[in-house]
Amino acid sequence: MAAALRKILTFGSMLLPYGVHELKRRLKNRHKLSADVARSLAENRQLAGLHAGQRCFILGNGPSVKGLDLSRLQGQTVITVSNGYLHSDFDKFQSRYHCVPQITYGLMTTEDVVRWFDEMHSHLGGAELFLSSTEAELVRKHNLFPGRTVRYLVLGESFDERTSEEIVDISQPVPRVESVPVMALMIAMYLGFKEIILLGVDHDRFLSSTYQYAFDLKVQKGKDFTVNADGTLTRGHHDEFQQLARLWRQYRAIANIAKANGIRVVNSTPGGALDEFERRPFEAWFEK
């Protein structure tokens, strides 16, 4: 009964504005994996448990980060996301891994993505990059990220259709994500991290009705179809809450997986709305 209800909710969500786009994307990408992507997925097996027992920070891009001294992350293992290379003091701590989820095309054209990836490559230092397999052909065609390790995730079905509490295997198709920190959490758990700290994962735009970043965007400025030029939201509360419900279910699933596998996920974001993980102040991680 629960499984049937989840399928109904998943189909219903496809009737929403973003859902229409997502349905088109899923139908378009129902094809056999290319040889390159299949090989990349197989290579992801080398990452299983690579950082067993270690700690990492997942650094989001929410405005709460402006109040943090990110230079304190120097010497820590950091996973950044999307435009996270624009954070202040990035050159001081630099990330070990960087994640970009499936890209929504529309305002963001193929040419924009190429320019964005070029910008990303020029700022990321030696970080290993995780992309959605939907961008693999674009990277190959334009010879992007030369000399950098680029790995792919096949973001497939819904978290609502996954009942297992085993760590998500990124060498196989994984659930698609509503927000990139969920992707970073899946990767961090597969890498073996036993303590994962979230920073700048605010998710509170439904409270303020605006969406801001911890920095000024460059290539991606004005390319988010859910936000007007002044930062106000383009979607009404109904559509916004539907998306948030999907996102919170994903965080709940991640929290359950973490608990079942002895992984501690801590939210050290100053403020924000995410309430699925225990809280601890950022400064407390550096107290002796």
Automatic annotation (TrEMBL):
It comes from the Bacteria. This is DUF115 domain-containing protein. It comes from Rhizobium sophoriradicis. The lineage of its organism: Bacteria, Pseudomonadati, Pseudomonadota, Alphaproteobacteria, Hyphomicrobiales.
